[in-house]
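Collaborator request, handled under Task 6.
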Amino acid sequence: MQKRFLDKIKDLYKIKYAEITEEEKSKEKPRRITKNDVKRRMSRQMPELLEDHVKSLAPKDKLKQFDKWFKEIKSYSLKELEAIIIAFCTKLHTIKAYDFENNLYSVFRTRKWRLNAKFKYTKQNIEKLLWVNKKLMECFEKSAGEAEKIRKQFKRRKKKKDLFLDDIETEIKITPFLLKYDKKGKYWQEYDSGIYAVLQFVIDDEISLRQKYSSLKKYRESLHGSKEDSWNVEGLGSRSGKRLDCDPKNIKDNVFANDYICYAMHELYDHSLWSLQDIIKIEEFWAEVKVRYQHFSEKKYGI
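Structure tokens returned to the collaborator:
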């Protein structure tokens, strides 16, 4: 009988634990081995282990490989899905939303679907989602205002025929943070292990929470900053859990029918690997305005 991928992970854990144990025994002052020591060693082999496992499900038939892998994923509990994700540790930088050819993406997607299906739109959860939406809008607006100041400064320097400046690129990046409250120390801190530490590592800000623009006006137009059109087009706020392809105002069970949902919130909810359960754990946002000043030398020698 074919071994499940999770069982192969457990086998690899035992092998790596034994390897590290032998290495420590040979040292003059051996140290205590932790789970993180083993997981870091394991993570190097995880991508290859997964690829080989999926291929073994149906050699030479990619379509059957995908079908059988997805069937196996559906058999896992939520805790088991998260155990698979956590096992990849620092080898998760390649995972992106809608990366259907990445076998690990299916694990993330299944986890997200399950959690979203169980999500309850309680008064507290509705308020938290609206808070996240509001903070995202505020961060982008403040960042755009700052970027516009920089662009105006650039225009003044360009007008004075600055020796270096030929062009400028401005970019806004907003990073959400999942935080937990330390009751003893009375402060908020990041998760240093577990699924939330992993999710923080893989937040797909390359797609969802970055924005390049050439002017404040174009920025606002591109993200519907005028608030004329809500970006609630994929079922956020739907108690029935259905995806929406029409105006949510026409859907009676949608709790955000009369609220403006910004583009960044839409990206976070629909395009990232985070579930609604994860999003309501957001406690902080960092806003960055990145500027790249550009100078172009002569295009051809002697002309």
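The cover message to the collaborator said: "The chain has two domains: 5-118, 123-294. The mean pLDDT is 82. Please let us know whether this matches your experimental observations."
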